[in-house]
Fold this sequence. Notes:
- The protein is of the alpha/beta class.
- The protein is built from 16 helices and 12 strands.
- It starts with 9 loop residues before the first helix and ends with a helix.
- The structure holds pyridoxal-5'-phosphate (PLP).
Amino acid sequence: MNNTYYGKLIFELSKKGRVGYSLPKNEFATYSTTQLPDHLLRKSGTILPEADEQTVVRHYTNMSNNNFGVDTGFYPLGSCTMKYNPKINEEMAALPAFSALHPTQPASTAQGALKVYYNVQQMLSELTGLSEFTLNPYAGAHGELTGLMIISTYHQKRGDLKRKKIIIPDSAHGTNPASAAVCGLEVVEVKSLENGRVDVEALKPLLSDEVAGMMMTNPNTLGLFETEIPEITRLVHECGGLMYYDGANLNPLLGVCRPGDMGFDVMHLNLHKTFSTPHGGGGPGAGPVGVRKGLEEYLPSPHVRKNDAGQFYLDYDANSLGSISSFLGNFTVILKAYAFLLSAGREHFKLMGPLAVLNANYIKEALKDVYELPIEGLCKHEFVFNGLKDKSTHVTTLDIAKRLLDYGFHAPTIYFPLLFHEALMIEPTETESKDTLDSFIATMRTIAEEAAQQPNVVKTAPHHTPTKRMDDVKAVKEPHLTYKSYTA
Ligand SMILES: *Cc1c(COP(=O)(O)O)cnc(C)c1O
């Protein structure tokens, strides 16, 4: 592209002496530009770029155009539920009545905000079949840590101090073992069967009076429903452990079934996946944690409750595990979830899960003759291919992901889960139209043809993006994170 501003750093556009303002010589007697005392006046120039306003605007606008987001195109990132976020949610979160609140103002003056908070707690309880929710955790992993702390606190309060082991399936998201380790628990891995589900027979010998509980993701990271849940929860409860549900992937089950009804004791949700909040750039999230009846007192504080007079207040329960965030967590994310829940309503919420499942299966069936599908059958919200069916081309999953960028699609999740060599994990979500799914399918088929006929085109992709293929290893070994080190 022949654009002066395109792909340039603002430092490269800098011209000595260029400014984005021109202050008039002051003519008014009441105001003088020489008001500042001499010792406060800058004596030498800054090392900031010097540019006029127009250059700055074009620079940042061009940069924003180089970005790929769910607002620019299809983003089928498996495990991350990148669904479209309705803009009304942003408008609601920006309302001054909410955005101008101060976190330390008395609860009596923030009743509206606390009502939103309380209502979201209640709605999540209804959707999941659990008794009570905290919205304080900042993310899914933070919710896992909070949930595991609730499990640990429960065992400790009962004087059952031996329980330090947590069982986690080999297909689990990496945050599960990481959160368990941060919580001071010892991770015990349980294997999956060929069909991708937890192996109940492999679980049995792991159970003992040292087991604090078991974490399960459902549908699991292969997009499969864990069919043995009733037996697994029975076994873990029988040995005195609690069942933890990683609900980051709850999207396909919305309106279909509830973790509380399956016998789970503690769970987390990702508001920034299932309940619509832009994510992917490390922005604010929320990982609410729900518990079954009997565990409510251990929830973190403060907890929002309603008294008999209908007033909302902050509760600091004596048995609470304590504070896990500043104030009540990321309130704007909760507001967006509330707007999302209300605008969808019960009847549309019931459609989200089934449509997410339909879209995933539609893509899977349309591509499984050219991409290798290691586990056949109906999937839930996502599925995993193991690279191209024809391995003779030596075109890898990484090559396919890079080539998709040339065609204007965000790449799916690649090389996760670790169960297959060339994992390519696709999650379309329910918000995409059939037209989008069809054009993605056509592109994936085109890439498969290219791989067979001109593999080099795929192996050297991307060709049409602002930056070409990265040297991943070098980027890790020699990260240039500032302009100075870039030019040095
Ligand atoms: C995304 C995800 C998490 C972690 O959520 P974060 O908000 O990124 O911390 C945990 N488990 C599963 C299954 C996930 O998909």
